């Protein structure tokens, strides 16, 4: 199959996902977008690299496509943005395009991507396609994908990491630690493992919180917001640094995902605090703002508070159930870094 045939396949597969804001999609030199009047454009880009973000032998292709898009959608959610269009740059090894089995992988990758794209109302408006290079004729090429997401927010109103003030309360949507727990099980068994229907697949098929992010913006609830891609400890540190504040998290308030809840207590807490890829939203809101128990169908839990910055004090503190206060270090982890891979 040639590059042209592959682009034609992409164009066909994604024809159903049309966007109100795409005046011209796949097929010309550029796409043409028509952002809503009075909006600002927000843009994010995320790599999905074989061996770094997924393992071909363990992750189902549908999940790879889903997660590639979910990462960017989660960034849009964190800004309170409405998605306008997605762009996919894809490098595939020659054998993936030439062989039937490889083509099946590609079709399943697109199916996963398309299902989430349709559900999120984001059309694929363009991209680039290439054969991925090999160092020698004997070595295997890697699957590399980069997704650019373009969204819109009302002018001057995008949620940022930088608005949290001392005295604000901290909240997260959904449950924490599920993605890390599911991934740990997959790596142990070297394949995806069954989860109960209520547990879902927080690692394989995370749900970006687009509606919750937009509701936070529309209702003016949040003073700052970030999505949990690297783990609560790391992402809260980003929010604190951007806002110039310190923070305190109460361990007993953390809502731990049932997949993590099956682990020994220490491991469950570790997954909730430091496990990445939950793609929930972490936000701050002034203490006087009434934050509902659920937003856009997603539960919301208060987990702590924003503190004034004090020289010599830790950026973040974890309040243990017995009220001991310990420093919370940012320790979100890189999944397939050489250390954690084996
Ligand atoms: P050019 O050489 O002008 O960049 P291409 O031949 O690369 O054009 O692409 C032709 C059209 O197909 C463009 O509209 C481009 O956005 C689209 N396209 C190419 N690859 C992809 C892809 N992986 N996903 C979505 N659209 C793609
Ligand atoms: Mg091109």
Task: Show the helix and strand layout.
Blueprint: H1 3-13, E1 22-24, E2 32-33, E3 39-49, H2 61-79, E4 82-92, H3 94-98, H4 100-119, E5 124-131, E6 144-154, E7 169-173, H5 178-189, H6 210-218, E8 224-227, H7 232-243, E9 246-250, H8 258-261, H9 265-274, E10 281-285, E11 294-295, E12 298-307, E13 316-319, E14 325-327, H10 338-341
Parallel strand pairs: 4-5, 9-13
Antiparallel strand pairs: 1-2, 3-6, 4-6, 7-10, 7-12, 8-10, 9-12, 11-12, 13-14
Could you list some keywords that capture this structure?
342 residues, 10 helices, 31% helix, binds magnesium ion
Mind explaining what this structure looks like?
The chain is α+β, with helices and mostly antiparallel strands. Helices cover 31% and strands 25% of the residues. It contains 10 helices and 14 strands. The strands form 3 sheets. Strands 7, 8, 9, 10, 11, 12, 13 and 14 form an 8-stranded mixed β-sheet that branches. Helix 2 runs parallel beside helix 4. The longest helix has 20 residues. It is globular, with a radius of gyration of 21 Å. The two termini are 35 Å apart. Bound molecules: adenosine-5'-diphosphate (ADP) and magnesium ion. Adenosine-5'-diphosphate binds next to helix 1, strand 4 and strand 5.
């Amino acid at each position: 199959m040639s590059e042209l045939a592959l682009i034609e396949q992409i164009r066909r597969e994604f024809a159903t996902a049309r966007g109100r804001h795409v005046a011209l999609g796949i097929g010309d030199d550029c796409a043409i977008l028509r952002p809503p009047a009075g909006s600002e454009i927000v843009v994010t880009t995320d790599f999905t690299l074989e061996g770094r973000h997924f393992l071909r032998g363990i992750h189902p292709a549908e999940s790879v496509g889903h997660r590639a898009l979910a990462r960017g959608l989660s960034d849009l959610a964190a800004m309170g943005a409405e998605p306008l269009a997605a762009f996919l740059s894809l490098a595939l090894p020659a054998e993936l395009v030439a062989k039937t089995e490889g083509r099946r992988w590609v079709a399943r990758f697109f199916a996963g991507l398309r299902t989430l794209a349709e559900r999120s109302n984001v059309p694929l408006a363009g991209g680039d396609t290439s054969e991925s290079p090999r160092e020698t004729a004997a070595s295997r090429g890697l699957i590399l994908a980069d997704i650019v997401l373009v969204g819109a927010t009302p002018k001057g109103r995008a949620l940022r990491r930088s608005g949290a003030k001392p005295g604000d309360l901290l909240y997260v949507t959904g449950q924490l630690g599920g993605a890390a727990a599911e991934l740990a099980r997959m790596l142990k068994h070297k394949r995806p493992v069954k989860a109960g229907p209520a547990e879902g697949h927080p690692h394989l098929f995370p749900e970006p919180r687009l509606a919750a992010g937009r509701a936070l913006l529309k209702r003016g609830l949040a003073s700052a917001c970030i999505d949990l891609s690297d783990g609560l400890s790391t992402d809260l540190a980003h929010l604190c640094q951007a806002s110039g504040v310190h923070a305190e998290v109460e361990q007993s308030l953390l809502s731990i995902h049932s997949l993590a809840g099956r682990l020994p207590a220490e491991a469950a807490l570790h997954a909730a605090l430091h496990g990445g890829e939950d793609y929930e939203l972490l936000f701050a809101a002034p203490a006087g703002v009434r934050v509902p128990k659920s937003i856009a169908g997603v539960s919301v839990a208060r987990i702590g508070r924003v503190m004034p910055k004090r020289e010599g004090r830790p950026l973040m503190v974890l309040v243990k159930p017995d009220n001991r206060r310990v420093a919370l270090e940012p320790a979100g982890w890189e999944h397939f870094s050489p250390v954690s891979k084996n």
